[in-house]
Amino acid sequence: MLIRFIIFLALNFGALALGAFLMGSPVTNEWYNTQNLAPWTPPGWVFGAAWFTIMLLFAIFLALVWKNQKSNKLFVAALVAHYVLNVAWNPIFFQWHWVLLGLIVISLLFVVVAFLTFSKGNYNKSLRLLLLPYLVWLMIATSLNFYVLAYN
Questions:
Q1: Beta strands of 56-107 (E only): which ranges?
Q2: Residue 23 has pLDDT above 90, yes or no
């Protein structure tokens, strides 16, 4: 279990790091700062704290359910899709400024994480609670992305 946790922790934070690298410049870049942002946009430090917490909880969830889900091809495919979508959103939104495509990608990411959360698995269903912060954060992030699309 500890080895699986370390592997998923590395995968999760590696995906975040890759997404940040592909973003090309800090979130506080000139383009982002000139956008009309939603009034509920949190301060910058909240993003880091939220992603740290979410990826930690996601690693715990995956470490606990992986043994029973690794033969579930749909679960594994959804997990891979999760990583691809999570990494892809950063450059799509922040570097290339494709806000509509970013909205589509983050919406798909929400669907994939919801699937991972609520898919049938041979594990304790209370483990799903570990992913609820991820779903809530994705709803907030999706609303922020939508606001940039609608008001810029």
A1: none
A2: no
Please give the single-letter amino acid code of residue 140. I
* Closest alpha carbon to 133 in 112, 121, 146, 117: 117
Closest CA to 127 of 87, 43, 69, 72: 69
Which H or E run contains 75?
Answer: helix 73-90
Q: Answer yes or no: are the C-beta atoms of 55 and 9 closer than 8 Å.
A: yes
Higher pLDDT, 33 or 130: 130
Q: What is the Cα–Cα distance from 52 to 9, expressed in whole angstroms?
A: 10
Give residue 18's pLDDT. Answer: 94
| Domains of the chain with CATH codes | 2-151 (1.20.1260.100)
Burial class of residue 26, CB neighbours in 10 A (0-12, 13-18, 19+): exposed
pLDDT per position as a tens digit, 30-59: 888 899 999 999 998 999 999 999 999 999
In this structure, what token pair is assigned to residue 113?
């994480």
